[in-house]
Specification:
- The complex is a heterodimer of chains A (about 475) and B (about 350).
- Chain A is built from 25 helices and no strands.
- Chain A is mainly alpha-helical and about 475 residues long.
- In chain A, α3 packs parallel to α5, α5 packs across α7 and α22 crosses α23.
- The longest helix of chain A is centred in the N-terminal third of the chain and has 26 residues.
- Chain B is mostly helical.
- Chain B has three domains: about 120 residues, no CATH class; about 100 residues, Alpha Horseshoe (Serine Threonine Protein Phosphatase 5, Tetratricopeptide repeat); about 90 residues, Serine Threonine Protein Phosphatase 5, Tetratricopeptide repeat.
- Chain B is built from 16 helices and two strands.
- In chain B, strands 1-2 form a two-stranded antiparallel ribbon.
- In chain B, α9 crosses α11, α12 packs across α14 and α15 packs antiparallel against α16.
- Chain B is elongated, with a radius of gyration of 26 Å.
- The chains are: A mainly alpha (about 475), B mainly alpha (about 350).
């Protein structure tokens, strides 16, 4: 059946062209590509003229003709010769109120784009997604499948996939941004804030902000259109690059961000819209700020500022009420006190770390999120404290065997914001599962990436992080 | 070298036969051998593509053969017209065999096996053949699909893809034969003119003269690096020269094509413009005034009527200068030669000028 169809393509010919070509000494193989190219160009210019002529009804392409053209193209979109025509159809807007093109045409183009069987300019893809919502959803899901639910990707690769998907660039159009963002929101809710989803959201935001800056100097759309429910001053503060602020001063904007967030969270408890989740969701978009809180707390010599303690506690478990949050803040404060003492001590052992992290009145277990937060602090400590470098290796490589049990090295950097079934006890954190190893890898990867973006000078810490990362990644 | 030429000769014969009913007698072994031969020649093409001497010698041989074939009717065409064609002679052969219903069942099955040996069997080269066949089949199917859906031609279009494609091929061929000898293009064009149909050939010529010089004629080839450097517009130049040397053809060209098209062509090629103006004034001189009907008519039926002549001048006058200025100056000169009368019906030039003046 199919074969005979294919063969029949070799058996008919166009008489008028065929004869002339033959008398030139050419075979059909010589004229078909050129003929197709010319037919496509002629249709493209017909569409373009149509576009330019506007209401000049005489030269307008009948809507039925456009519609049937899009239908004929469905099986042909992957033919390279058709790229200009597909582009012209996508960017063509007729004068009819309703959509002229066949829905299956959009599906076919979108599928071809996702499978890289067609290459189209960004503008055409934006038109496709604006005109056909299912295609945009499909493209976003495709990205999720590729980045979140498959093999772990390094952040660099994630970023490449992300840019290749054109989603961040297309998101400069607020309608597209809102849809993609909404899908991220649901993915976070459905996965209980899985670190992979969070990391992907942060890469998306990063690429989006980059694209937005490139797009146009005088922002075509107000920021309000992208984040309609957030206070504009908070969005402005979050959009600042940490890189543009000297390292020693970064805690200032961070403190302001914390205060604004706290205000809106506590305000929301009095019945305003959104709830703490919305504030948290906004904040975690910006990995450059969110991931830096623990580091800032650890590095600041002074008494830890209340605002940053609140922000850290909030980041890790946004749904806590004020009582548990105050408790978390107190614990973090205590651990920080111990760690700062250790920072000054010339020698350090894994046992010391355990002591710093593990003390809890009455030996009670910490809530999951709090445990993760503490381990996150310890991991930061290992990377920054000169003495930490010597034991980090031991801690990481002997994970699961040390009786001391501190093994803080395998923490998720990220913050499951919601109560999660993954219960890892801080007192016995060496229950080194595949999952926690993966999360440690994620932490190191993200930290290195953040340092790169900040152009951070920290050769020793970088080397250590890179070595630990390689070691964990090559471990069977 | 001599044996290579002979092999080329023999393979051309195989190719010529491949599209005839003679393939009825081919068995699977013949098909296999023919394909092997094609692969070998493609190999030759790759190997000697950069070797100017061998390339030129083979090119000459193919051109000679093509000239000989030219007389023997379309059935005998091998399709190997130039050295570049060797690069896809396996594609040419398989394509013809696939489309030839005379090929026996066993031979046809063997052909399919050769073309689609299944996964893992083919080497990289086979894959290219299979891919190019598939691409070609898809393109052909696409062309037919567009035409079958009534999208093949655009009723309001100024450019007809069919004519434009023929024009591109014509220029490409002109350039190829031009490389092999100065007499080539002339012979080719005269042959095509004699073979007809002449009207559509004129349309193709006009389209060729209008193709933008920036686009190299012909579809992009895969193995570009082996292509001869294209001198853009060289084929066009040959075409203009040939037209200028062919009074009959030029006259038919100016009489039968639409006025707007002619204006664009002569606007692009000033050499043709002078001849065109001359032809138009001759045309005007041959018309006489029919007192009873009050119109200018031709002595013979084949002379175009007044309206046609008027539309040509009108189109010229709507074009930017120098076309407009020169056309008006020619009309003024003729009018003065006729005595410079202002009354209608005495001189066709006076009438043309006043019609143009009131029409403008």
């Amino acid at each position: 059946g199919l074969l005979s169809h294919i063969l029949s393509a070799f058996r008919f010919d166009i008489k008028e062209v065929g004869l002339f070509t033959q008398s030139l000494g050419y075979a059909p193989a010589d004229y078909y590509p050129g003929l197709l190219k010319n037919m496509v160009l002629s249709l493209v210019s017909e569409l373009r003229e149509n576009h330019l002529n506007g209401f000049n009804t005489q030269r307008r392409m009948a809507p039925e003709r456009v519609r049937s053209l899009s239908r004929v193209c469905i099986p042909l979109v992957t033919l390279p010769d058709f790229e200009p025509l597909v582009e012209a159809l996508l960017t063509y807007h007729g004068h009819e109120p309703q959509e002229m093109l066949w829905p299956e045409f959009f599906d076919a183009v979108n599928e071809a784009f996702l499978l890289k069987k067609i290459s189209l300019p960004k503008s055409a893809i934006v038109c496709l997604w604006l005109r056909h919502l299912p295609s945009l959803e499909r493209a976003t899901l495709h990205l999720f499948e590729k980045l979140i639910f498959s093999e772990r990707n390094s952040l660099r690769r994630t970023e490449c996939f992300m840019k290749e998907s054109l989603l961040p660039q297309a998101a400069c159009h607020p309608a597209i941004f809102r849809i993609v963002d909404e899908m991220f929101r649901y993915a976070l809710l459905e996965t209980d804030g899985a670190p992979e989803v969070l990391a992907t959201l942060q890469v998306f935001t990063c690429c989006f902000v980059e694209a937005l800056e490139k797009e146009d100097n005088q922002l075509k759309f107000a920021l309000k259109t992208y984040f309609p429910y957030a206070p504009p001053s908070l969005v402005m503060a979050l959009l600042q690059h940490p890189k543009d602020i000297p390292q020693g001063l970064r805690h200032q904007p961070l403190r302001r961000i914390a205060e604004m967030l706290r205000e809106s969270v506590e305000d929301q408890t009095h019945g305003s819209c959104g709830g703490p989740f919305e504030s948290w969701f906004l904040f975690v978009h910006f990995g450059g700020w969110a991931d830096t809180v623990a580091e800032q707390l650890l590095m600041s010599g002074a008494e830890p500022p209340e605002a940053l303690l609140w922000l850290l506690a909030f980041t890790y478990s946004p749904r806590d009420g004020s009582q548990p949050r105050a408790q978390t803040m107190a614990e973090v404060k205590a651990v920080l006190g111990h760690l700062r003492k250790l920072l000054r001590s010339p020698t350090l052992s894994a046992r010391d770390l355990q002591a710093a992290a593990g003390e809890r009145p009455g030996g009670a277990t910490r809530p999951l999120a709090c445990g993760q937060l503490i381990r996150h602090l310890l991991l930061n400590f290992l990377l920054w404290a000169p003495a930490g470098h010597t034991i980090a290796r031991e801690v990481i490589s002997h994970h699961g065997h040390t009786q001391e049990g501190t093994v803080p090295g395998r923490q998720p950097r990220a913050a499951p914001p919601l109560p999660s079934p993954r219960l890892v006890l801080c007192e016995h954190p060496m229950a080194q599962t595949e999952e926690t190893a993966r999360e440690t890898i994620g932490f190191l990867d993200q930290t290195l990436d953040r340092w790169d973006r900040l152009c951070m000078e920290a050769p020793a810490s970088r080397r250590l992080a890179r070595e630990l990362l390689t070691e964990l990644c090559t471990r069977p | 070298m001599e044996s290579l030429s002979q092999q080329l000769e023999r393979f051309s014969e195989v190719l010529a036969v491949s599209r005839t009913a003679h393939v009825r007698s081919w068995d699977p072994a013949t098909v296999r051998r023919a394909l092997q031969w094609a692969r070998y020649l493609r190999h030759v093409y790759r190997r000697f593509g950069r070797h100017a001497g061998i390339r030129l010698a083979l090119e000459r041989r193919l051109q000679d053969r093509w000239r000989r074939e030219d007389g023997s009717g379309p059935a005998a065409f091998s399709g190997l017209t130039n050295f570049r064609a060797l690069g896809h002679c396996d594609l040419l052969l398989s394509q013809r065999l696939l489309g030839n219903r005379a090929l026996g069942d066993a031979a046809f099955r063997c052909l399919l096996q050769q073309l689609c040996p299944g996964p893992g069997v083919q080497d990289a080269e086979e894959e290219t053949l299979q891919d190019s066949l598939a691409l070609l089949a898809r393109r052909r199917a696409a062309v037919h699909l567009l035409r079958a859906s009534g999208l093949g031609e655009n009723p309001a279009a100024r450019r007809d893809p069919l004519v434009e494609t023929q024009a591109e091929l014509l220029l490409r061929r002109l350039q190829e034969v031009g490389e092999a000898g100065a007499e080539g293009p002339r012979g080719l064009l005269s042959g095509l003119w004699a073979r007809g149909p002449q009207n559509s050939f004129l349309e193709v010529i006009a389209a060729a003269l209008l193709l933008p010089p920036s686009s190299p004629p012909g579809p992009p080839q895969k193995e570009l690096e082996l292509e001869s450097p294209q001198a853009p517009g060289e084929g066009r130049h040959e075409l203009v020269q040939w037209l200028l040397g062919q009074a009959d053809t030029m006259a038919a060209f100016c009489h039968s094509l639409p006025a707007g098209l002619l204006t664009s062509v002569v606007g692009r090629h000033p050499e043709l413009f002078q001849v065109y103006l001359g032809l138009l004034t001759d045309w005007g001189r041959r018309l006489h005034y029919d007192l009873q009907k009050g119109v200018w008519v031709g002595a013979e039926a084949r002379e175009g009527p007044w309206e046609e002549l008027y539309s040509r001048f009108q189109s010229l006058c709507q074009a930017p200068s120098p076309l407009k200025d020169e056309a008006l100056r020619a009309l003024e000169t003729c009018k003065a030669q006729d005595g410079g009368f202002e009354a209608p019906g005495l001189s066709i030039w006076t009438d043309l000028l006043s019609a143009l003046g009131s029409g403008a």
